[in-house]
Design goal:
The protein has helices at residues 3-18, 25-35, 43-50, 54-66, 89-113, 126-150, 153-165; strands at residues 41-42, 70-75, 78-85. It contains seven helices and three strands. Strand 2 (70-75) and strand 3 form a beta hairpin. The mean pLDDT is 89. The longest helix is centred in the middle third of the chain and has 25 residues, at 89-113. By secondary structure, it is mainly alpha-helical. It has a three-stranded antiparallel sheet. Helix 1 crosses helix 2, helix 2 (25-35) crosses helix 4 (54-66) and helix 5 (89-113) runs antiparallel to helix 6. The protein is elongated and about 75 Å long.
Length: 166
C-alpha cells in the first residue's frame, strides 16, 4: 500500500469516527476515493479500486451526489458516467454538521421554553431541577456562541479559498 493509499484509508477511518458508526462505510470510502483522485472515476473504476460490486457503488455514489458531495460528468465519446468530488465539498460537509447542531439547539430551546416553574417542582427534586436547568442553559449558550462566531464564515471561506487558488 502506498503512502497516499494509506492516507486515504486513514481519512476514511476518520470519516467513520465522525459519523459515530452511523454512516455508510462504503459511502465514506467512495468519498475518500474521490477526494484523493485527480480525475473523475467511472463506477467500474471505483468498484475495482474498492473491491466491491458496481451495483453497490452505484447506490452509494447517488447518495453522495444527492448530498452535494459528488458530481456526475458524462463524456461525449463514452457512454459511462464519471464522478468527481464536488467543488465545494468542504462547505457542504460543514453545513451538514451545522444543521445537526442547529437541530440540537432548537431542541434545547424548546425544552427550556417548556421548563416548569420552580413552584411546580417537589421539594425532593428542587436540587435536580436547578442542576438540570443550568446544564440545559449551558448547552443553549455554547451553541448560540458557536453560531454567532460562525456568522459570515462561508463568505470568508470563499474569499480565502479564491486567494489560495490563484
Amino acid at each position: 500500500m502506498s503512502n497516499l493509499q494509506s492516507l486515504q484509508e486513514q481519512f476514511s477511518q476518520e470519516l467513520e469516527k465522525l459519523s459515530d458508526g452511523r454512516g455508510n462505510l462504503l459511502a465514506e470510502r467512495l468519498f475518500s476515493l474521490l477526494l484523493f483522485s485527480s480525475k473523475p472515476l467511472s463506477l467500474q473504476e471505483m468498484a475495482d479500486q474498492l473491491e466491491v460490486t458496481k451495483a453497490a457503488v452505484s447506490i452509494r455514489i447517488r447518495e453522495l451526489e444527492a448530498g452535494g458531495l459528488s458530481v456526475k460528468k458524462s463524456k461525449i465519446s463514452d457512454r459511462r458516467d464519471y464522478y468527481y468530488i464536488a467543488e465545494d465539498f468542504s462547505l457542504v460537509m460543514a453545513e451538514l454538521f451545522l444543521s445537526k447542531m442547529k437541530l440540537f439547539l432548537s431542541s434545547t430551546d424548546s425544552i427550556l421554553e417548556k421548563w416548569p416553574e420552580e413552584s411546580k417542582i417537589s421539594e425532593d427534586q428542587i436540587e435536580n431541577y436547578h442542576t438540570a436547568k443550568k446544564r440545559m442553559m449551558d448547552f443553549q449558550l455554547i451553541y448560540q456562541l458557536i453560531f454567532q462566531r460562525l456568522e459570515g464564515i462561508e463568505d470568508e471561506w470563499k474569499l480565502k479559498r479564491n486567494i489560495t487558488d490563484k
